[in-house]
Amino acid sequence: MIIQACLNGGRMKDFNAAVPTTPDEIIADAAAAVKAGANELHIHIRDADGRETLKPDVVDATIAGVRKVCPGTLVGISTGHWIEKDDFRRRDYLQSIQVLPDYASVNMNEGDCEGVVRILRDRNVPIEVGMWVAADAKRAMEIGVESGALRYLIEIMSQEQANADEDLAGFDAILPTMEAKPVLLHGLNVTKWPLADLALSRGYSTRVGFEDGKLLPDGREAKSNAEIVAEAIRRKSGPKV
């Protein structure tokens, strides 16, 4: 059971001034998050202008920089289609990265997810299987991604509690039919903390950080990813208040 720090996602400075949006900011923020207690890192690679990218030189430099300041910490990256908006370019970049991540997240709701999985497997990069709804779990089974998976990443995106509960119930029904793997469960914005608490109560891993929301449980806006991580660590080890 781990606490993963999701540092940025697609967020920009207008969301929170502390969102890391350049390679240097990501490296510094990663170090602070790990110091606050994060066990792993999930990063959306950015170029010098703050744009998400999978360009190999930027990925290589960022991962190398993070590893230098966070030795021994697993570093994962997003491979989302929206980053490059072109399946052929995404595949080419993923085949050309030299400093490989410790794992990569692949969204099962993307049309070319099977091709991305194939490339990552060929390069011995463990896969975090991203699933938003139960249909994504069915897709994961169809393409046979379970056997090489690091874990199942259950991402509840619904902002209405009833819908979130329904989505989670769908996963509760289908997970027993899948190959047993560790689970990381997380929410988004209003469901971030409730689902983090639920994940920890179930013995699942969870993740927190600006990618998934900027508010602390008491409604205050976090000043940093490190502050969010520290709160998650506190909730993991003590009463939820």
Automatic annotation (TrEMBL):
Protein name per its UniProtKB record: 3-keto-5-aminohexanoate cleavage enzyme
A Pfam family assignment: BKACE
Molecular functions per Gene Ontology: 3-keto-5-aminohexanoate cleavage activity
Name of the encoding gene: kce_1
PANTHER family listed in its UniProt record: 3-KETO-5-AMINOHEXANOATE CLEAVAGE ENZYME-RELATED, 3-KETO-5-AMINOHEXANOATE CLEAVAGE PROTEIN
The entry's keywords: Transferase
Entry keyword annotation includes Transferase: yes
Protein's UniProt keywords contain Nucleotide-binding: no
This enzyme's EC code(s): 2.-.-.-
Enzyme class: transferase
